[in-house]
Design brief:
Length: 168
């Protein structure tokens, strides 16, 4: 493994979720699960947009201590995750303190947060654990199943001045 990075995943990248296969695909780089973990700070985890995407809002001190998984990844996998999350244009990857459940150890991990979000997202229910959501109305719609596979859903959650992705 090249340089090692710790990444906290809280949504569709978790085990048994739709995008988890990306972490398992060696063509994307290397990833090793270190276990379940929670954020040391409270954050709002919401399900939003027309595709029911889980978002961890960049609003520390609000919401819940969010449960997820920590992965040790190499440079290539981190680049893969950055591409999936459209970092830094959509989600922004920031280092945050995460507590591993088994050991109780606190570690700095990369976390993908939504910055510059529309205020109404703070009115949505805040989740503690995305994997515990069993509401059929909140099922994530994979990119391959979307009628409009581009970034048009950004308008559902991002503020107008940061909506337009570059044409590069």
């Amino acid at each position: 493994m090249s340089a090692r990075h710790l990444v906290f995943v809280y949504g569709t990248l978790r085990k048994n979720m739709l995008n988890h296969s990306r972490l398992l695909d060696a063509a994307n780089g290397a990833a090793r699960c270190l276990g379940l973990a929670t954020t040391t700070e409270r954050y709002p985890l919401v399900i939003a947009s027309r595709y029911n995407i889980p978002y961890l809002l960049a609003a520390p001190g609000h919401g819940q201590h969010v449960r997820g998984e920590v992965y040790e990844v190499d440079d290539k996998m981190l680049e893969t995750l950055d591409a999936l999350e459209n970092h830094p244009k959509y989600y922004e990857r920031k280092e945050k303190k995460i507590k591993l459940e088994d050991s109780g150890e606190e570690r700095e991990c990369w976390v993908y947060l939504l910055h510059c979000y529309k205020p109404h997202l703070m009115d949505l229910p805040f989740l503690e654990d995305y994997c515990a959501v069993d509401d059929p109305e909140k099922v994530y719609i994979a990119r391959c199943l979307r009628k409009e596979p581009g970034p048009e859903y950004w308008v559902d959650v991002k503020l107008d001045e940061v909506l337009a992705p570059s044409k590069e």
